[in-house]
Design brief:
By secondary structure, this protein is of the alpha+beta class. The protein is 42% helix and 29% strand. It has a 4-stranded antiparallel beta sheet with strand order 5-6-4-9, sandwiched between helices. Strands 1-2-3 form a 3-stranded antiparallel beta sheet, sandwiched between helices. The N and C termini lie far apart (62 Å).
Length: 235
Amino acid sequence: EGTIRSVNRAFTELTGYSGHEAVGANPRLLQSGRHDLAFYQAMWASLQATGHWHGDMWDRHKDGHLYPKYLAISAIKNHDGKVTHYVGIFYDNSERKTIEERLDHLAHYDALTGLPNRSLLMDRLEQAIERARRLGNQVALLYLDLDHFKHVNDEFGHAAGDQLLRSAAQRMKTCVRGADTVARLGGDEFVVLLPETHGQDDILPVVRKLLTELSSPYEVDGHRATCTPSIGISV
């Protein structure tokens, strides 16, 4: 009948609701609003077909904040095989979600600059090309490297070189639109993806901005360094 009959202490600690508040209420008390009707329909279809359901979902704490949890539901039947109750066992998996997000970030973003890496760039490039084919526009790739960057490493040390790369990454991000991607391939090699362009009038202003921004001197580790960029363009 969808009525909570009993909860344990762990339930009250994880949800914020006391036993008095929960017992007699409907489990909708915990709904986060993040799942659509199809999600719950699939859950009930599984319970009716197999007597079990398990998976990740989001719930809402009594204080209003949302948290991820792993929930397993099982049907309880009487001697005649009729379902009389359902029991749900769950735990807060916020820590696991945080670890998964961290691993995903490490897989797709450059650790030094925080820019997308080659893997994420290729994924976005494939999507951009498919979209360009449908809409009849163009995709531009700007390949950049920093001239004489090795001299910065040799003269001032790798820490200074890393600082310069981080600064260059931030400068590049100021030169592009929100839909564009600035990625680091490695070393002093970067790529700017312009996913929707219509010829030189869209591309050259970005190139000029990049040349201007990246040609300005850098203050690194108390030293002044200059690394002008070389840029190749492919459409």
